[in-house]
Amino acid sequence: MQGIIEVLTAPQTIAYAVIVGIVFMGLQIMAAVMVYAERKVAAFMQQRYGPYRVGPKGLLQPVADILKLFFKEELRPKAADAFLFSLAPIISVAAAYLAFAPVPFGAPTTFFGLLDEPIKLQVSDVNVAVLVIFAVASMGVYGIVLAGWASNSKYSLLGGLRSSAQMISYELAYGMSLATVVMFAGSMSLTEIVDAQSGYWFGFLPKWYVFPQFIAFFVFACAGVAETNRAPFDFPEAEQELVAGYHTEYSSMRFAMFFMAEYINMVTVSAVAVNLFLGGWHGPFIPANYGWIWFVIKLAFLLFVYLWLRWTLPRFRYDQLMSFGWKVLLPLATVNLLLTAAGVLYFGL
Amino acid sequence: MPLGHYLVLSGLLFAIGAAGVFLRRNLITLLLSVELMLNAANLAFVAFGRQFGTVDGQIITFFVMTVAAAEAAVGLALVIGLFRHRESLNPEAFTSLKW
Amino acid sequence: MGSDALLFYVFAGVTVIGALAVVSQKNPVYSVLSIVASFFGLAGLYVLLEAPFVAVAQIIIYAGAIMVLFLFTVMLLNAPREDAAEWDRSHPLYRPMAVRIGGVLAVLLALELAWALSRTSGLSVSVAERPAASSIQEMGRVLFTDYMFAFEVTSILIIAAMVGAVVLARKRED
């Protein structure tokens, strides 16, 4: 008993709890920020103002949205399977949060000397981190499929099945681009992959993997956008086609959970892309301890690219989407894998 | 954790899977029970591999998983074909070859 | 109880309860979800056995791909719930006495297995005696040298299964 209390109050444990809290709250705040950013960016791209009444420059709009969702009536179709209907958003949100666990967002820090030894800015440092992210991403499919099935409605079922078929098709290209980066870095641990990207070539070009592996970055970007069901790959939730796809019958908090899960998935995919291809927390002009600032900057840039894509490009039709995933991305990723393997083996890259 | 515990668990899972194959009257649940038996074998492989300190146990699980995936795919395709024929998933409905 | 033993019993409990739910649920969707829960328990057991790669592969391949395939099939076929009334009570194998004797035999088999296992020496040796050889580099090396043939044949098997599944599930165009 004494030992347990000692372990619980040790500075390492408290620091660890602080990090878990930062990640959890950070993801929720990012989701809220993304709600606002999406509407503002969409508005400016469409030459209008977007929300500007609620709070200064509309900054309190996410608060208004969340309050509205809290107070809406919670509906459930009578013929819907009650257990699965409630379980689906829980699975979606849980998978979304869990996927961020192995992602590091800064260099090991001692919190300004409060701790004796540095602690990693990561919820869990496993040495198969890349695979864990992939595994949890496959779990996200269940939330969508069960939502479509449990709503007991034609539109939801079709939307759910199409969405999950799209997700598992693009998982293959996703995994292959991950495998390419792992081959290049020689390790599956995200911390080691980021550390392999420190330093500069020729004195000014950072050693980020986006430069030698631009094909893998392209494949990862396309597959990541498709995995999160965002435009231009969002046919299953397109308003004009299937009412709202798998979350047609959901309202209030359950809908909010799907909404949040989508934004948090976006944040996770962008964070993984930053770590794998854009050098994580390494960058000029900022000392290594504050590397998380660079991480946040790069993350914000990638999220802006997500929004940019949504409000600029038209939507793919479903068969175009599937044929792109299977006939273009997958062969591209495979050829890239072969070339990288040849390069690593024979030229020692 | 003694090895015997893992083997008993593996045997138990296998027995539950076998009971499912015998007792269930739904083709899809039957295939699920077969998957359960394959997983029981996987667990025994990994436990023994850990016991002898080699990595072979884990390698064999990959082949078992791959075979299970292939068999599930073909099995489900067969189930779909059968369903189109008889509109039923009950194995009792497919007894036209019985004497 | 050591934390290792506690974790073992927790994961083993999840696995067994999931397995029992699979064979006893009437709704096929619930069966698939129960087996996914069971697979998570198994993944935990693999981590305890110091095989993290197998654990993650279990989640990716089994729970993430094969079970999604099962779920698709259940939903596409709109698989009907199984009724106990569908059991043909006149069949000799389903008469009450036969079921009871079968149950007693199953319990006897389980007891005998447990007895046989407890009498064999070397099985009570703790699993963590020798250092684990579970590094991924080691696995990759062995996979491409000792098990090369099996690896290549597996790829042919996968292609055969893919082609077979597509051909078997195709709609007849007549």
What is the topological layout?
The complex is a heterotrimer of chains A (349), B (99) and C (174).
Chain A: H1 2-9, H2 11-45, H3 61-71, H4 82-99, H5 129-150, H6 154-185, H7 190-195, E1 200-201, E2 205-206, H8 214-227, H9 239-242, H10 252-277, H11 291-312, H12 318-347
Antiparallel strand pairs in A: 1-2
Helix pairs in contact in A: 2-10, 2-11, 3-10, 4-5, 4-10, 5-6, 6-8, 6-12, 8-10, 8-12, 10-11
Chain B: H1 3-23, H2 27-51, H3 56-86
Helix pairs in contact in B: 1-2, 2-3
Chain C: H1 3-24, H2 28-48, H3 52-77, H4 96-119, H5 136-145, H6 148-168
Helix pairs in contact in C: 1-2, 2-3
Short summary:
The complex is a heterotrimer of chains A (349), B (99) and C (174). Chain A is mainly alpha-helical.
What does this structure look like?
The complex is a heterotrimer of chains A (349), B (99) and C (174). Chain A has one domain (2-347). In chain A, strand 1 (200-201) and strand 2 form a beta hairpin. Chain A has 349 residues and is mostly helical. Chain A has 12 helices and 2 strands. Helices cover 78% and strands 0% of the residues of chain B. In chain B, helix 2 (27-51) packs antiparallel against helix 3 (56-86). Chain B has helices at residues 3-23, 27-51, 56-86. The longest helix of chain B is centred in the last third of the chain and has 31 residues, at 56-86. Chain B has 99 residues and is mainly α. In chain C, helix 1 runs antiparallel to helix 2 (28-48) and helix 2 (28-48) runs antiparallel to helix 3 (52-77). Chain C is mainly α and 174 residues long. Chain C folds into 3 domains: 1-83, NADH-ubiquinone/plastoquinone oxidoreductase chain 6, subunit NuoJ (Four Helix Bundle (Hemerythrin (Met), subunit A)); 92-124; 135-174. Chains in contact: A-C, B-C. The interface between A and C is medium-sized, with 23 and 18 residues.
